[in-house]
Design a protein that fits this description.
By secondary structure, this protein is α/β, with parallel strands linked by helices. 40% of the residues lie in helices and 19% in strands.
Amino acid sequence: MIQRRKSKQIQIGNVKIGGVAPISVQSMTNTDTRDVQKTLQQIYALKELGCEIVRLAILNAEAAEAVREIKKHSPVPLIADIHFDYRLAIKCIENGIDGLRINPGNIGKEEHTRKVTALAKTNNIPIRIGINGGSLEKELEQLSIPLHEKMVMSAMRHIKILEDNDFDKIKISLKSSDVLTTIEAYRLIAQKVDYPLHLGVTEAGTLKGGIIKSAVGLGTLLAEGIGDTIRVSLTDSPEEEVKAGFMILKSLGLRKKGINFVSCPTCGRTQIDLINLAKTVEDKLSDFDKPLTVAVMGCAVNGPGEAKHADYGIAGGIKEGYIFKKGQIIKKVPEEKLVDEFVNIIQMENV
């Protein structure tokens, strides 16, 4: 059982973050925010996959203005991603945004942060101090100390600005493209403050490599009890980010939404098309919401025995498979009918 770090609780729209709240999964749209319809289509698609908070890129005044209409129809809370121009943050607050992300490395003068903080306080809008290892303040970049320490120094500096303005609805992220730097930064900040932490490895890469980096970085921290909300950053669709986020959380027992899928590696004992069988079953059950463990195993050795903890499973035979439930075989089915029969049993028994 993972003992989570004690953190303050804040609220983004109707989603609680920190404290004893479940670790939430976020993503970010890759549409032009000015295109309200396309942006809303993507938000709804992310919501269908379980995404709980969506961030929008606010590149200019037109994007900030579009927030008003997007917010009217969004099924999830929205966060405005602000770089360089603090006035965009102010406009987004005026247009009903649920939360802000500000990058201290490029937001400019301290007085700009103070102006945003004052309005956020009046409107009860949380602020994420979003530190990025690649865009720190110039004076910090020049220090001869490890990067993760520079990142934490940046975060602490801006936490103080917000606290000096009697503002404590704060969330913090310290992201680097280097996994170990990211881990060390979060470990250090977790010792210094009790604000909720947004986890992520930035610029993690394409689908396969990015998921591996994120699983190592986020998984290490989550296993240590650090982290209150996550985003898996991938050079791929936002939908894949959400799927990966839930997979990481489920692997640690931190969320139980949807199928926990188990399958064994192939070997010389396998006499069924295990790779395609596993992929097809996983795909057909990808939208299933109930927290079930489903196993697809290649042979009797790794079948009901090693996967007896599974709610439902398949054990491969010679061009056929055995369907089992809680370790007990309930049916033998020819290979060509196996997937449909297996999925049908799961769906019929879990309406």
